[in-house]
Amino acid sequence: MIVALGGNTLLPMDDETMAGQRRRIRDAARNIATLTEGDSEVVLTHGNGPQVGNLMLQQEEAKSGLRFPMDVLVAETQAQIGYVLQQELGNALEEAVSTLVTQVRVDPHDPAFENPTKPVGPFYAEEEAKNRAFQTTQVKRQDGRTMYRRVVPSPDPIEVIETDQIAAILDRGGMVICVGGGGIPVFLEHGELQGVEAVIDKDRASAVLGAELDADEFLVLTDVDHAYLDFGEPDQTPLEEVTTDELHQYLEAGEFEEGSMKPKIEASVDFVEGGGERAIITSADNIEAAMAGETGTQVIQS
Amino acid sequence: MIVALGGNTLLPMDDETMAGQRRRIRDAARNIATLTEGDSEVVLTHGNGPQVGNLMLQQEEAKSGLRFPMDVLVAETQAQIGYVLQQELGNALEEAVSTLVTQVRVDPHDPAFENPTKPVGPFYAEEEAKNRAFQTTQVKRQDGRTMYRRVVPSPDPIEVIETDQIAAILDRGGMVICVGGGGIPVFLEHGELQGVEAVIDKDRASAVLGAELDADEFLVLTDVDHAYLDFGEPDQTPLEEVTTDELHQYLEAGEFEEGSMKPKIEASVDFVEGGGERAIITSADNIEAAMAGETGTQVIQS
User: Fold this and answer.
1) I want to staple B302 with a disulfide (CB 3.0 to 4.6 A). Which of A286, B77, B245, B269 is the partner?
2) With an 8 Å Cβ cutoff, is A26 touching chain B?
3) Does the active-site annotation cover A131?
4) Is A118 a catalytic residue?
5) Residue A41 in contact with residue A83, Cβ under 8 Å?
6) pLDDT, block means (10 residues), chain B with 302 residues
7) Cα(A272)–Cα(A278) distance, rounded to whole angstroms?
8) Measured between beta carbons, which residues in chain B are less than 8 angstroms from residue A100?
């Protein structure tokens, strides 16, 4: 089973200290630990949006002037989040859980490189944004203010480089944390891998890993209990059991928010169409009920 | 075989950018790649002194005020260095190499906690050092200036938490990078692991891992070609083949520098006395000659 945990669900907005992160991660770990009952193999992936944003802000503010590229910062967040997750999960399960630094290959000719769309890092006022050496875009903050953020390409994941190593640990019976932040984006040039300034959607990358590992189930954990039709409207309707064909229609109708629910729906469809039994979208505190089929958006084959 | 790579050998003093780090790491990777000829299993460990120092400096200078504890910063350097190493080694070997985020258990009653000795992080002038919330010590910089640095405890490593997972990947035939920076220091309390503000010597931790994995050889790579008697004196003598008994005598005579060559010698002695065939101390560009027994300090059983 692949379990994808949202980066926002791992960091409380009102307490970004490590103590705050650890509290949130501990809660998630206790819920995830219940999944190993019945001997299922569990691979845990996670987002890193706010965490990589904090590292970008930190190195921008520091006088010392060291500026690491996105691939290295994504790697750092894999261990920053992975370490606390592996420790808290290990404590909950009473066995060692491991984190693998994971690269995910993308196509250097992916059209995403022509059209960067993924906002990352700190928020800037309009004047500050103009002076940056990188492309920025207007975004609306949670407090309603219009500000600017850097945008980077979000190419499609093609393959996870370390799948054999992940499988080796799973076969030994251990839980694995990997593909953090969607994986470190790399491409092949002259037969050699190299990092690239981009961010891969973690749900899409998790679906690719799920297909590579022949996983039966894909659990997408986020901060809502279901995907919704007409989300945010007075008549919003939770999606319960839904087929991939139905989801294709909803996607065409523009039902799901870009960069938020849409990639989760696409990744769920990809996973089930690639041979998975079901994908579930729900929140971490609904894990047990969702696994029993009692809540969450349950995506099945048509 | 366990190969321990010095943190200083991975970062050029005159170019701490990621481009500089990557150049240095690529050179080391090409040398290390030669070790896999003849099907030996290779586990690579590495230091992180200057790299964790840069992260400490960066978060101290940043206005945003997030201050992560040492265990989390050590984790971040494991992935920062591990990612570049795994990519460059993978390119040299034409196969995937993986990095595991690694915890190393210490004893909360280790006397090191009463007497912090390991300097870490930025250098401070005397006045700056007085205002810090942590213990500092006088150190002599390479340029001869006397300054101050934070000191943290350096407890003995007891066990590597993720040894089974490391073995699972080795058994599958892959090279593993782990125990970066000596491992993330953790201790057990009420049956649960938790991180602690300390730094474990990476050579000592590597020797512990070598014993756990029943490794035959332990290669300690540093910036000198041998360990020396009377190091730095006009009549300094390189140690070539040397037994553990001889090294005990030299250790008692105070031959080796604290925090530098001494822990490498102690780790080599521990490894060979724990059942290893030989330990070698040399520089990365001497790997092939040293493996052939032609150079380097070769530590053997008495």
Assistant:
1) B245
2) no
3) no
4) yes
5) no
6) 90 86 91 80 94 90 85 97 96 94 98 93 88 87 89 96 97 95 97 96 97 96 94 94 98 92 97 96 93 96 94
7) 6
8) 98-101
